[in-house]
Amino acid sequence: MTHKIGTLFLLLLLLSLCTAGELESKKDLTTLTNVKTENEYIKSSTNQFPENCSQREKCKTQPINTRNSHLRKCCPIGESLSIAHDDQNRAMCVSTSRNVNIKVINVTLYDNCIEDMESELSLPLEIGNPCNTSFLYNDEEDLFLVVQDGSLLVMDPYANDTYSVEKKYCIDVENSSGTTYAIVCITAVEDHINRSQIVIVAILMLISIPCLVLVSYVHFRIKELKSVHGMTLSIMSGCLATGYFLYSLVHIFKLDERGFGYAVQFFILSYYFWFFCLCCNTSFNVWIHISLNKPKTQLITYLYMGSYCSVSFIGSSILVILTYQKGLPGMPSYFIQGYTESIRESQRYFIPPVSTLLLLSFFVMAGSFFGFQKLKRRGIPLASKQDVDISPLCNITVYEEVKKDAKCISLLGLILISTWLLEIVTFYSPGPQIYLILMDMVNGVQGVFVLLIFLIIRRRRRIIFRWWSDRGSLVLEKLELEAFN
């Protein structure tokens, strides 16, 4: 009996020792799992993100969705980032089939806490990188979302409640890896033209509008001026007047630039297309209708005008459609300096086409000059004298009219090319603001130049007065009427 009791006691002792050993082992194991190295983050005792922000103070400034809320994409539609992973992390846009898939959420911000309202939104895209210098985030290592006002919400995935809201940013996909990158500005490209300067240029444009309307009306209404040249000049002036009017409305009354921008782009581009057609018409007159003595019939006149309308309006429409498809802003480059590659890309369908049109216009007018020289060598100007027979190969009246028109077009072309060179210099090589505002002021008074060149210098006063007199709206003295004859 005593032997059995001793054996039982020994078993109980061994069992207690084993239990104590297991507890000690578990304690040691728990201690080891909580040991951290210098490269590990401290494990929090709470959830990664708070489930309830009711105990936190709501932020005074909350994101609000408005019609101006946009998701900013770095590259044009159909293009994405190509990042050179060097010291500068340079990024450029390349063609791609990848799309940006970024979640836009509706949130309420609290002090170190974010409440998701669990409703997703869709924001329109705004194209462009607004940064001079920037931080680079990617969705594999960082956590970022876009909130309802278009701001970027950047969160620390290893912290409980820290976050930042960024206004100046852009998001896009890396072309090769498919990783989504967020470029957040350290310093952004700020507005360099104040509102007073914008209003001054807009007022100058408003001054130009009546001048352009007068030129357009006179050449369209008066029969003596209603030639192919006159109708081309009339439509050209009307396009510039319409573009200036819309541009002034946008900047004076702070209207939405996106919708109006494409209309402004269309009319300004049409203006330069029509100027090119004006130059071509002069060249056709010199080399065909004067040199070969082929008068313009009504059918040829309609053919010319139909061709000019097709070239001008279809060409402008194609450029505007391409701009819209890429998601680029349509507003022309006035008041803009190309500090970044993104800003320069925004004008790809405005500055290069206009530069090309002006260059072609220069070559066409140079061809017209050589045409006049050829006619001069043939002795055409001498035919205006009464003692010399008129050459059967040329109508001297048409010759003189075309020659005067060519001089006026050349003068306007000189002004356009000069101001456009200033535009290119100030856009691609940003410099002092005074040069930019002076160039825009010269652009704003183009309508005054058109009036002075084609009505004053061209000496259309007599024709206009005669037309006004025939309408019975103006009483002229006998001496003035004799001056017309």
UniProtKB/TrEMBL annotation:
<protein>
    <recommendedName>
        <fullName>G-protein coupled receptors family 2 profile 2 domain-containing protein</fullName>
    </recommendedName>
</protein>
<keyword id="KW-1003">Cell membrane</keyword>
<feature type="signal peptide">
    <location>
        <begin position="1"/>
        <end position="20"/>
    </location>
</feature>
<dbReference type="InterPro" id="IPR052808">
    <property type="entry name" value="GPCR_Mth-like"/>
</dbReference>
<feature type="transmembrane region" description="Helical">
    <location>
        <begin position="299"/>
        <end position="324"/>
    </location>
</feature>
<keyword id="KW-0297">G-protein coupled receptor</keyword>
<keyword id="KW-0472">Membrane</keyword>
<feature type="transmembrane region" description="Helical">
    <location>
        <begin position="262"/>
        <end position="287"/>
    </location>
</feature>
<feature type="transmembrane region" description="Helical">
    <location>
        <begin position="409"/>
        <end position="428"/>
    </location>
</feature>
<keyword id="KW-0812">Transmembrane</keyword>
<feature type="transmembrane region" description="Helical">
    <location>
        <begin position="198"/>
        <end position="218"/>
    </location>
</feature>
<keyword id="KW-0675">Receptor</keyword>
<keyword id="KW-1133">Transmembrane helix</keyword>
<dbReference type="GO" id="GO:0005886">
    <property type="term" value="C:plasma membrane"/>
</dbReference>
<keyword id="KW-1015">Disulfide bond</keyword>
<keyword id="KW-0732">Signal</keyword>
<keyword id="KW-0807">Transducer</keyword>
<dbReference type="InterPro" id="IPR036272">
    <property type="entry name" value="Methuselah_N_sf"/>
</dbReference>
<feature type="transmembrane region" description="Helical">
    <location>
        <begin position="434"/>
        <end position="457"/>
    </location>
</feature>
<feature type="transmembrane region" description="Helical">
    <location>
        <begin position="230"/>
        <end position="250"/>
    </location>
</feature>
<keyword id="KW-0325">Glycoprotein</keyword>
<dbReference type="GO" id="GO:0004930">
    <property type="term" value="F:G protein-coupled receptor activity"/>
</dbReference>
<comment type="similarity">
    <text>Belongs to the G-protein coupled receptor 2 family. Mth subfamily.</text>
</comment>
<feature type="transmembrane region" description="Helical">
    <location>
        <begin position="349"/>
        <end position="372"/>
    </location>
</feature>
